[in-house]
Specification:
single chain; alpha+beta; 3 domains; nine-stranded antiparallel β-sheet; 14 helices; 30 strands
């Protein structure tokens, strides 16, 4: 009993004894605490490592968005500059696992739309053209300082999307190679519906005057009594050519000569057709700005004459304009001109502010010139006299287009480069009669037939023919359809330089090309006499007479087309402003 009681008592005393129990608990808990501390340190280190990786990916995405045409190299450079030097690039549709020594990056260009009506996760569309954003995704192995012996390093994954909206203001049209005030007055008078009487000096002032397009839109809003609206709201309206000319004249900073010329045109214009302003101008995202606001670093300008004639052409789209120039062209006894102007396809404007992929186009144009040529010495010898020579010239030019294909700023705004892919309109010219119907119908081709090129008389001993018709036709075309890239640097943009691309180099004038290809036949007016031998004498004389007027005819044609914003086998492109935009994180 005593032994048992003593044992039980000792046990109770031992259990009740609290001496040194902290040391025991410490000994038991220390390994667990150390393990938890190690995990906490690793977790904190991984968190900081992920934050650092996210910052680097953000920088890489912003850099790539500023260099959309070379996004991969921009990302790799940004990663290398921030300590991630060993990187594998994962292509779309493949999977690469990161290793202890190599990170994995995936670069996905696409298009970002910041509309609040679109769900946040759907605003970036991978691979959608034209690109204005880049998604950069990075995977790398995290670093474990204490838990490496117990578990594999986790993968750190980060992603960022950055967007930049590079924009350029550009137009496709034509400068006038030379000026003939009488021709331009007659043409613009017909287009505007009034009697225009401006001097060559007036036209020169309009050509050299650049209109600030946003200030013009502000002035036009006043004309149309629109307040508290955006530029796009104004362009969604319609206006007459007279209202457009008045608004142009009210743009601040315009020279006095150009201002007076525009006021003269505005007061003379009787054409009441209201044209949709969106067919004249497209301001892109700039159009969302309120009236009076100006985008930083982006100038939108246009030649006063180009803008006015583009508007006049739209007001007469698909309609025929007839102009009688009389004997105002050197070497021509009489000249009549018919012009038909089609609308640009897909309602494409001639001036636009836009991102990559934006297109501007001229209108399809048909011109018919019927001229009677002065003869000089009409005696060809051998009893043959040249009574008359006619020049029935038909020219059709398909639309020319310019497409914005690249904007880059390799080392900042001063290094900006804008690339425009320009394609001149195809030219087809006929020295022939054209069908009277369908001239202004651009949905079908014209038909042509031999024309009366010359009239001659023949007086021999036994033959006295007072009138013999020499008929004929000729065809000439320019068919090269390859676009040409035009690059505009900061200096070109600041100077608003015009660059021209040709379908091919014309070694001789258009009229000369037609005359030299002329095929003639003799019409004896039903007399049943074979007079083919006459051609040996008549054709050289006719060709000589026609070649004598090819220069003024070409000048007339080029002036007409230049005033309409198109050229024979050429396209003139001008970039008046551009910005690479400020790249920002969007997701």
């Amino acid at each position: 009993m005593g032994t048992k009681g003593g044992f039980m008592g000792a046990t109770r005393r031992l259990l009740a004894d609290r001496t040194a129990n902290f040391a025991v608990m410490t000994a038991l808990c220390t390994p667990v605490a150390l393990a938890l501390t190690a995990f906490a340190v690793d977790e904190g280190a991984l968190y900081n490592e992920r934050r650092a990786a996210q910052s680097i990916v953000d920088i890489a995405a912003i850099t790539a968005a500023n260099n959309l045409t070379n996004a991969q190299q921009a990302v790799l450079t940004a990663l290398s500059d921030n300590g991630i030097t060993s990187v594998a690039v994962q292509q779309s549709g493949t999977t690469i696992a990161p290793t202890a020594t190599k990170a994995v990056v995936q670069i996905t260009p696409g298009r970002y739309t910041g509309l609040t009506t679109i769900a946040t996760g759907s605003r970036f569309q991978a691979g959608q053209l034209p690109y204005n954003a880049v998604q950069v995704s990075l995977k790398k192995q995290g670093t474990l300082y204490f838990a490496a012996s117990m578990m594999s390093p986790p993968t750190i994954g980060t992603s960022a999307i950055a967007s930049a909206q590079p924009q350029a203001a550009f137009s496709v049209g034509s400068r006038l190679a030379s000026l003939n005030g009488g021709v331009l007055n007659a043409l613009l008078g017909s287009l505007l519906g009034g009697n225009i009487s401006l001097s060559v000096m007036d036209y020169n002032s309009l050509i050299s005057a650049d209109i600030d397009v946003l200030s013009f839109t502000d002035a036009l809003a006043t004309q149309l009594h629109l307040t508290g609206v955006s530029y796009n709201d104004v362009l969604a309206s319609k206006a007459t050519v007279g209202q457009i000319a008045t608004a142009m004249a009210n743009v601040p900073g315009l020279g006095n000569s150009a201002k007076i010329a525009l006021q003269t045109m505005a007061s003379s214009a009787t054409n009441t057709v209201k044209i949709p302003l969106s067919a004249l101008l497209d301001l892109g995202s700039v159009g969302n700005l309120g009236l009076g606001q100006k985008p930083p670093g982006l100038t939108v300008a246009a030649s006063a004459l180009s803008m006015l004639t583009a508007a006049a052409g739209l007001a007469n789209g698909t309609n025929q304009v007839a102009v009688n120039l009389g004997a105002t062209i050197p070497g021509l006894l009489s000249t009549t001109v018919s012009i038909a102007i089609g609308e640009p396809p897909q309602a494409t404007p001639w001036l636009a502010v836009g991102e990559l992929g934006t297109v501007v186009r001229t209108a399809q144009t048909r011109i018919k010139i019927n001229a009677s040529v002065g003869l000089g010495n009409s005696n060809l010898g051998g009893g043959i006299s040249l009574l008359a020579v006619n020049l029935p010239l038909n020219v059709e030019i398909a639309y020319a287009e310019a497409k914005l294909t690249d904007i880059s700023c390799p080392t900042g705004p001063s290094s900006i480069q804008v690339t425009i892919a320009a394609q001149p309109g195809v030219v087809a010219a006929h020295l022939a009669n054209s069908s009277a119907t369908g001239f202004a119908d651009f949905t079908r081709p014209q038909t042509f037939s031999d024309a009366e090129i010359a009239d001659v008389s023949l007086k021999l001993l036994l033959i006295n023919l007072s009138l013999i018709q020499i008929n004929g036709s000729s065809y000439f075309n320019i068919t090269n359809m390859t676009p040409t890239n035009l690059t505009f640097n900061a200096t070109d943009i600041a100077n608003k330089a015009i660059k021209t691309v040709s379908t091919r180099n014309l070694t001789q004038s258009l009229a000369t090309s037609l005359v030299n290809n002329l095929s003639l036949t003799v019409n004896a007016l039903g007399l049943g006499i074979d007079l083919t031998a006459l051609l040996g004498t008549v054709k050289p004389a006719v060709v000589t007479v026609l070649n004598g007027v090819t220069a003024p005819v070409d000048s007339l044609l080029y002036n007409l087309l230049g005033a309409l914003g198109v050229r024979v086998g050429e396209a003139d492109v001008r970039v008046t402003g551009a910005t690479c935009g400020r790249s920002v994180l969007v997701q």
